[in-house]
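Reviewers of the previous submission asked for a worked example of the structure-prediction workflow described in the proposal, so we include one complete record here. The input consisted solely of the amino acid sequence. No template or homolog information was supplied to the procedure at any stage.
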Amino acid sequence: MNDLPDDGVEPTPSEVVATDSVEVNTPSVDETPADASLAAPLSPPPVATIGDVVPLSSQTSVRPAKRSLWSTRVSLLLVAALVGGLTGHYASTSNTGPGGVTIDAVTNKPGAGYLPGGMSIPKLINKALPSIVSIDVKGQGQEDQGTGMVITNNGLVITNNHVIAAAANGGTITVTRTGSTKALPATLIGTNPIDDVALIRINNIRGLTPVTFGDSNALVVGDAVVAIGNALGLAAGTPTVTSGIVSALGRTVTAGSSSSSETLNNMIQTDAAINPGNSGGPLLDSSGDVIGMNTAVAGTLPDGTSAQNIGFAIPDATIESLLKQLRAGESVVNHGAFIGVEITSMTPSLQQEYGFTVSAGAVVMSVISGTGAAAAGVKQGDIIVGINKTTVGSAQDVGSVVSALRPGDVVALHVVRGKRHLTINVTLGTEPKS
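From that input alone, the workflow returned the following structure tokens.
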């Protein structure tokens, strides 16, 4: 089925902004200098300035990404993973074909591509395909295609919220299992537009094979990955497979359509080719375990140049943290509260590189000027470890807490700055329009 809107016209990309923000207000910390180790500007791994970032359903697109405030100069290095094998000697025969043309023919079979650890890509695909489904959504005068991952044997499927958005107010959802052409009806269970995750259930089914989740927190740049999904909606039940590497970690991306947008934190960047229709499908590690959900892809740079091989996936750690709420049928409502910071989850590599004194939390990559965070004295390099009485172990925790609050609410932001533990009272604001 065609993955374009029912008028057959490709959607016009909207803008995408690479900022994750939250606001703060009156400073409640002293202005004594931070430790010497944090006094100088940090030099983190480069944050990419991207053109358009497009959610990977066939309907949605994005806005121009903003340059990271951490550095004044950004360069984006794309690393291409070469997948192939070395051809050795083989026996050949000569045959005379029609017209008297002599050709050489071989009898050996094509060789499989291999991933680190020794698993062949065909073997990995065979392991994963029974757990992957194509999704078709109709509603609000439009049709959309995407991908989903089976997480229970009785039909629960996780996907992107933007894949099923058209059915949120009375549309229909059908699912096609890999290797089948039969569309099965499905029911929407829970939605989380803030983190772009949704849960659906295939009706009246048993005996499915669930995916196995890996450990996205253990990823490092350069790890091999494979992406599988209903790319371009070419043929439901016959997903497309691509391979590549982890190009970067901890990206912040704002993507959306002309009517809505979403800011996603701590995203995995990959050069595995992903396209509209891949949304909701798995990004697999070299063992065939899910370490991310393919969600967005970079499109066009501000000068009109097309971006190449820059895709983004939601880490499995984020997905797993949301499953309990989604399974209970809860839906998240975004009240638009905004702190005013760009953040990323603490990782062992970040801790080692910058000598941070804590191993968990949300690292403030930049503070957005004119926001509550800037007014309250939040600084680049601060590590958010708590909000009010809730412990913060990652960037996702910050989003979860703030999503339940409203602009004007005052929160106690507990941060670690160098060796000091501070509490900063922050008044939440509203995310500025770009």
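The two ends are 35 Å apart (CA to CA). We consider this example representative of the routine output the project will generate in years two and three.
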